[in-house]
Specification:
single chain; 307 residues; alpha/beta; Glutaredoxin; Glutathione S-transferase Yfyf (Class Pi), Chain A, domain 2; 2 domains; 11 helices; 11 strands; 43% helix; 19% strand; Thioredoxin-like_sf; Glutathione-S-Trfase_C_sf; Glutathione S-transferase; Glutathione_S-Trfase_N
């Protein structure tokens, strides 16, 4: 297996994974598909991540990448010949991602959850509700926001639609990060709304663009078992160089025991600090099932604390 072999731990219905699957298709990369449970426990994922439970997770050998922003940056770093950054102001693509993963995501998820609630298993709502809306969420409060959030989605989808009037893709003549950042929420909402097709038909340019992206697909991929993915991690060695940004304000030292925790809540992952940059924090950690792995997180959206 190639040192750059991509292993994606995900499940088919995951909206944020659709963003990564779309990017893999844009870049024309081949990958291995490991299907994981939608709900905890995830016994053959935890040895790789050290407790991080969100979907998706990218594995390349013994290096484990958590959170889509970290995954995308790694794919861009490893495969620059098919870069999806805008030619002139690529870093602004990430600002679009912060919008689609922030305000637009919350509005879309609220609409989708209300639409799905009559047929949603109670255990799924009990798991996803606190994740998306906080520990004190209630379905009644979410339902009360439905029309406001639907109006917000309509406004924001109109921005996408208007941006596509004179161009094939948001990124220009070829698809790029801005397209993937926006597309996954259209994909998610279409199949979750009872009247999704009628709602989206208001946006003719968006619908044309959506079909174009869907036709590109996810790139060549094959199924892999989660047990085989663990074997690959155990047989490999982390390839991440040790480095600490000397200007980082946290004043953390190489090898220091630290924890990384999502600012929105969730389990903390602990390990020895291997790399700290403007965009990433990387921890070396050991597990009996995989020996040593390096687990990577983005800086934005995560708290780093000395243990």
């Amino acid at each position: 297996m190639s040192d750059d072999q991509i292993i994606l731990h995900h499940y088919p219905q995951s909206p944020v994974t659709e963003k990564i699957r779309t990017i893999l298709g844009f870049k024309g990369l081949s990958w291995q598909s490991v299907i994981i449970p939608r709900l905890p426990p995830k016994p053959n994922l935890m040895p790789l991540t050290g407790g991080y439970r969100l979907t998706p997770v990218l594995q390349i050998g013994a290096d484990i990448y958590c959170d889509t922003s970290c995954i995308i940056r790694e794919l861009e770093n490893r495969f620059p010949e098919s870069s999806l950054l805008s030619a002139t102001k690529g870093e602004l693509d990430w600002a679009v991602g912060n919008w689609t993963d922030g305000p637009l995501f919350r509005d879309v998820v609220t609409v989708a959850l209300v639409e799905m609630s009559p047929n949603m298993p109670p255990e799924f709502l009990a798991d996803r509700g606190p994740l998306y809306f906080g520990s004190d969420f209630s379905l009644e409060d979410i339902q009360a926001k439905y029309l406001d959030c639907l109006a917000n989605v309509r406004t924001q989808f109109s921005w996408i639609n208007n941006s596509l009037k004179t161009t094939e893709y948001l990124s220009g003549p070829m698809p790029g990060l801005m397209d993937a950042f926006s597309y996954y929420l259209v994909w998610f909402l279409r199949d979750r709304m009872a009247e999704g097709e009628a709602f989206l038909s208001q946006f003719d340019h968006l619908v044309r663009w959506e079909k174009s992206i869907r036709d590109i697909g996810h790139g060549p991929h094959e199924d892999m078992s989660d047990e085989r993915a663990l074997d690959i991690a155990r047989e490999a060695t982390p390839q991440t160089a040790s480095f600490i940004d000397p200007n980082d304000p946290l004043n953390l030292a190489l090898g220091m025991k630290v924890s990384v925790e999502p600012t929105g809540g969730g389990p903390a992952v602990s390990g020895n600090l291997q790399q700290l940059t403007l965009d990433r924090v990387s921890l070396l950690r050991s597990d009996p099932q995989v020996d040593q792995v390096c687990v990577h997180f983005p800086r934005l959206g995560y708290k780093i604390r000395a243990v």
